[in-house]
Amino acid sequence: MTALAASWLPLSSGERAVAIEVLVHGPLSRTDLARRLGLSAGSLTRLTKPLIESGLLVESAEGATLPEVRQGRPSQPLDIVAESRSFIGFKITDDMVYGVVTTLRSEIVARHDRPLDTHEPERVADLLAEMTGELARAHPSLAGIGIGVGGLVRRRAVVGESPFLSWRDVPLAELVEERTGLPVVVENDVAALVEAETWFGAGRGLDRFVVLTIGAGIGYGLVLGGKRVPYAEEDRGFGRHWIADPSGPLTPEGERGSAVSMLSIPGIRYQVQAATGREVTYEEILAGAAEGDPMCVRVIGEAGRALGTLVAQISNFVMPRKILLAGEGVGLMEVAGEAVDEAIRAQRHPLAAPVRLETKVSDFHDWARGAAVLAIQVLVLGTAEP
Amino acid sequence: MTALAASWLPLSSGERAVAIEVLVHGPLSRTDLARRLGLSAGSLTRLTKPLIESGLLVESAEGATLPEVRQGRPSQPLDIVAESRSFIGFKITDDMVYGVVTTLRSEIVARHDRPLDTHEPERVADLLAEMTGELARAHPSLAGIGIGVGGLVRRRAVVGESPFLSWRDVPLAELVEERTGLPVVVENDVAALVEAETWFGAGRGLDRFVVLTIGAGIGYGLVLGGKRVPYAEEDRGFGRHWIADPSGPLTPEGERGSAVSMLSIPGIRYQVQAATGREVTYEEILAGAAEGDPMCVRVIGEAGRALGTLVAQISNFVMPRKILLAGEGVGLMEVAGEAVDEAIRAQRHPLAAPVRLETKVSDFHDWARGAAVLAIQVLVLGTAEP
DNA sequence: GCCACTTACTTTCGTCGCGGAAGAATTATG
DNA sequence: CATAATTCTTCCGCGACGAAAGTAAGTGGC
Question: Domain spanning B84-195+366-381 has what CATH number?
Fold first, then answer.
């Protein structure tokens, strides 16, 4: 499969390096590129010429940032023609499919959602193809599709196991490729978000980078040297055994005091419900904590300390340049930010480098955008394998 | 400074890659090398020829491992002439200097220790030069000196801060270079041990590798992509803020329940002493725990669980291919191995890859050998900077 | 308005390193 | 003894790169 009809190939490795550098790090002059890539000025003329001729790069007239030096011949920034190709990203949830169209730079230019009333693989693929057709009308230059699914994905093509869809070994990429004729990449949703942040988001250009997602579960993504590290237990109840507080609460889905019990949205809701008997939403609990409701303050405070503990441990052991908190549950940071910081301070050496913590509230379209980035990577790198 | 008189230079990058591969991964045929380095057979002939002519490599007659295939022209293993050059490694402690002479492969061929009765930098350098002179008589082909010191070392040359020697900004490399005429590398002792294990020991060829040392303090070394990750707090009381058990013991040197309090040799001795009032050695405590003495069993058991907790956390977050436990305090593993394993199991996902834990009892000569490896690296790589 | 100066980019040319193909060396197999 | 298999060598050509010289396009001084 993996019909790479309209890839950027053939691109030499040097040309590809230039293309990626411009794609990821915005408009850059040839001299800047030469410095960043460790090449001579002459090589850059050679490498950029075919890229400009093929329409992938342009000499953008208005430089984004005015150069410091105001002497000599002005530099000529090169930019990607971000609109030259479009990409589709889908995020499949239990009852909805969220779709976005992005540019090469992964900027969202359109959204399109549809309810999902079946989990039958063929029917799901039909729906995705239908949505693709509808989006293709407004965005004809589609170059690829990325699909994010909660669950285990193999070889960026086959959904090996997805409990919430009741799927096992579904060759989703193939099913959608057949129906659309476009190259398709399938990936675990957290992995897709991590890749997206590594290329275009918080992790751009960092050699060590961690993503922690808080939502229905806890997700962890480790990026070293620009590559995400895969691991066996990802998306199979990750965080169930990360014990943040040995004497912490116990919930149906996690071990006592585990990240899942203390931090995930279901874990927090379960705790409040178990104590008060009332069914409340996550937002209500956060609001309650902000207003001083004792029960909510306690649960959210403990969650904050647990998060701080995890962040401190990650910082101590992995020493990432940055940690990104993402997912639907990061609203916690606004209410319990103080508790988080305090827990970090307590478990980190005073001389250690400060933790660069970034928070990003993500909705389902962000997850879909993550999947679209995978399609971009495939086009640019010319391979679906990571 | 950094007088690289007798380096292997000039070596092209390709030649250097071949040399390192043979040095680190034992005798290898040209075909093997071609596969490992991703080069063609022709390139290997080209690259190895000057290395053989210069006497660095030889065609070792007896292949270490007989090839599987017994057909066709037999392969011709290439090997480093390990004895062609010698290296000295020193480990400086409070009252002793431990010295070793190693081959290019970092095999120890001689040991030589001397008491240290002064901390005056010039006098220490005198002593090191004197010991070098004595060793040089039996091993004339000395190519470099590596020195391991507990404390903060800058640019592999200057001891920025070493509490136990009461040093600040001592240009030790320069002092010893002046006296010996040999290139000298100075490094923090833990960092040196980590480098040694990465090149020649447990971490050989691994992309993610962690070293945890247990001794007077707790040391941590993270190796990613073959490079050790430096960090600000190293050797400044590292592990004082790694809380393994929030309700654990408190000792003079560490926070409550920290790795230093629960695991380091002084921490364990302090606990037993505080409880019994008697001054006992670490070995006596281990023996007591093995024999069933309740107090020792409790302290050592808690230490084992703390170690397991740390190992599990490191595994969860860093996902190293292997974790090496080293230092003088790893005897703990023999007595409390069961507790360690249990704690790891409890805090690790059942589907996660099993932790490859390796234990290495190290004496001071191993630390000295680690320093010698740094000298080897400098010679091979041609630079003292990491 | 002219000229020096600075910086960015282009052109040209030589070199180096690599892969590929063909061939030599050296063994097992029938 | 021919054939196959495997390793290593030789040779050639290509392609990517850097160095250096040349061109372009500005600023600033007089």
Answer: 3.30.420.40
